[in-house]
Amino acid sequence: MSPTMIKASLMAALLLSGAPASHAAQARPPQILVDCSGAGAGTAVSSLADLNAMRFVPGTRILFKRGVTCHGSFAPRAGNSGTAAAPIVVSAYGDPAAGRPVIAAGCAQAATDSDQTLTDRARTPRGVSPYHTLCRSDGGDGAAVARAAIHLYNVDHWEIEGLELTNDGAGEGARVGLLVQLEDFGTGSHYRIRDVYVHHVRGYLKDAPGGEHGYKETGGILFNITRRAVNQRRTRFDDVVVENSEIFHVDAIGLSTRSAWMCRPGGAPCGDYPPYKTGAATLSAAAADEYTPSTNIIFRNNRIHDIGGDGIVVRTALRPLVRANLLHDIWLRAAGNSAGAWAINTDEARFEYNEIHHVRYQEPWEPGDGMSFDADLGTRGTHIVSNYSHNNGGGFMLFCGCGNDGLGHPAQASGTVVENNLSLNDGRRAIVFAGSQSAVVRGNLILNTRAGLSAPAAENTGLGSKNAGDIRDNVFYHGADAGTLFRAVKPALRHDDIRWSGNRFYGYQHSGEFTAGQFFEGDTANTVLPAASYDPDAAMRQWFAATRFRERSYRR
Known about the structure:
Elements: H1 3-17, H2 23-26, E1 31-34, H3 48-52, E2 61-65, E3 69-71, E4 88-93, E5 102-104, E6 109-110, H4 117-121, E7 135-137, E8 148-153, E9 158-161, E10 164-167, E11 176-182, E12 187-194, E13 197-202, E14 219-225, E15 236-243, E16 246-251, E17 253-259, E18 294-300, E19 303-307, E20 312-315, E21 317-318, E22 321-323, E23 326-330, E24 341-344, E25 350-352, E26 355-359, E27 371-375, E28 383-385, E29 388-390, E30 395-400, E31 416-419, E32 422-424, E33 431-434, E34 439-442, E35 445-448, E36 458-460, E37 469-472, E38 475-478, E39 486-488, E40 498-501, E41 504-506, E42 527-529, H5 536-547, H6 549-552
Parallel strand pairs: 1-2, 2-4, 3-5, 4-9, 5-10, 8-11, 9-12, 10-13, 11-14, 12-15, 13-16, 14-17, 15-18, 16-19, 17-20, 18-21, 18-22, 19-23, 20-24, 22-25, 23-26, 24-27, 25-28, 26-29, 27-30, 28-31, 29-32, 30-33, 31-34, 32-35, 33-36, 34-37, 35-38, 36-39, 37-40, 38-41, 41-42
Antiparallel strand pairs: 6-7
Keywords: Signal
Protein name: Right-handed parallel beta-helix repeat-containing protein
Organism: Duganella callida
């Protein structure tokens, strides 16, 4: 055996045993090669079970061989953290032409679908389709469901890049592609997910009665903070970046953050999370002081498509940034309301330069989601700017405060700003008010050029204690000269909290709603003109040029 191989074998043995390495060995962070093919060199780790048994020092590089599939779950032990100066890196080695290394946590025997055509062909013409498994065998009766292909539990300072992750199954289960979970940890810092391909993750489509995990705890890439009791250590994420990755054909959520440290006055319902949801603790007024938001969350330049439920959700966070993502074919399977990208119980979320299209609207939900964006329960200061939304079944924008915090207060969306976006042929209605304390919708292009699409400018559902919004300086265009202002879910519903100022309505001149008692004009007069007096194509060209959207949006 050569001296290099002897040194590598010694380092692997030290890592496996947990014994301290020498000072000389620690001078260069160890590199661990993983080859599950059975044909690897003697220095390579040959199974995930052996890898999971190791202790990793800061700076360790864990490299999976390209073109090789490891079956099972990579779940390092709690405490295996890197440092700010020396994060633990998971990446690939070998011939780039061989393809990505794969970690397959689900069935051991599966068809391949490298170009996604098998899965795409299984979709119905309308698009709302059952999950399409690639499994030929699910591993036999009683086979355990792996929680995730990669499950990082109570570790931080990790970077993961260049891998392919699956967690398929013949039936639904509590599955995730990549799960980062903290519990009683404090602040977990520095997580980098780059160029990771997650696909065919068969999670849940609705909550299973008595199940440990809700359906929104299953899906592609999830950052989840859990609790089991009241008197635990406050925990949050800080410095999370997910970028340049693809999530395809997963149930139920594409990319998400969650936290059980989320109770606050006016926030999302505290009883939705353990320990209160499970009855392990009694929800009292003391819970109002538990809010511990995650910080420095960035989701950028990811492609997320063929998703059973929601595309991107940020929860219990401060100033998260969702930028330049491409989301399409969303809400294809889940039983509950879903949307493209949205925030809940979060302050100052910013969504910019995202393209979202073909979010489905599923009957019989009423009033129903299916839109691009949503400022949901307990959001404050959400900013949605310079995004391109088109061909979404449920519309463009939802304000949802239709509930309470579990502490006796309404959970409103407040301070939302929606500006300089392009909405093209978003169906059912453009803007939905289902509980808004305050909002400004200004300077947007909301265009309807598709024959037969009515898409009223706004809908006031009657849900939530207040539905307030200042809709100003927007362009609403209906190419068939048949535009309508409101869709009233309840016939007697009033819209007295919505003010319309300085908008231009093209193709709405036959609507009597502008002089009806339900139309409340703001500080600047609105203009109503025929559709023929407006050029939507020229307006779109100008919008794309002014925003430099093509340069700033998703790039493959």
